[in-house]
Known about the structure:
The complex is a heterodimer of chains A (121) and B (107). Chain A has 121 residues and is an all-beta fold. Helices cover 0% and strands 53% of the residues of chain A. In chain A, strand 7 and strand 8 form a beta hairpin. The radius of gyration of chain A is 14 Å and the shape is globular. With 107 residues, chain B is mainly beta. Classes of the chains: A mainly beta (121), B mainly beta (107).
Amino acid sequence: QVTLKESGPALVNPAETLTLTCTVSGFSLSNAGMGVSWIRQPPGKAPEWLAHIFSNDEESYTTSLKSRLTISKDTSKSQVVLTMTNMDPVDTATYYCARTRVPGVYYFDYWGQGTLVTVSS
Amino acid sequence: DIQMTQSPSSLSAYVGDRVTVTCRASQNIRTYLNWYQQKPGKAPNLLIYSAASLQSGVPSRFSGSGSGTDFTLTISSLQPEDFATYYCQESFSLPWTFGQGTKVEIK
């Protein structure tokens, strides 16, 4: 059974760097046709796709945050890591990782439970 | 970036009603359109991908249609467990974007 679980700090100070880890099971990060995305959702708002990484190590980032984001994976540990620099209170949101089916038709078929990150001093 | 606009933003309906949610893309996205259901405190759940393909395990009362810029999610007979917020999401071009959501409430 496919599962994803996010981990990381619940509280981050402004200007600090956020590091989130997504640990997956039930599939391999080296499986062709699959990847992992990070998606965030501020309280009461719609989800926002942030980044993805595919089995071939191809990475993509949302335009507005590209300079602040880095995504990487450790296939042996079944983990995908997202770092976001220079955190601001507007970055307060629930952060999800989701399995992404590729290629051609891309969709998020399994999601983690999400982790709420609050940016505040 | 492609803008996704859903309508209505919210609706009230009775159990058993037929409910339709629409999603409009700011440019032609062919059938690169997915629908998700989200309940409070939970992650979104994939319902429909490629505009009209039902995700495994999703009840057949959910259906999707459309292509190009205009898309529809239909619930043929609303059930108590269907009260939630629904989001469309395009996967035609990066960055992938979501609609603002449609909240379906009990009447």
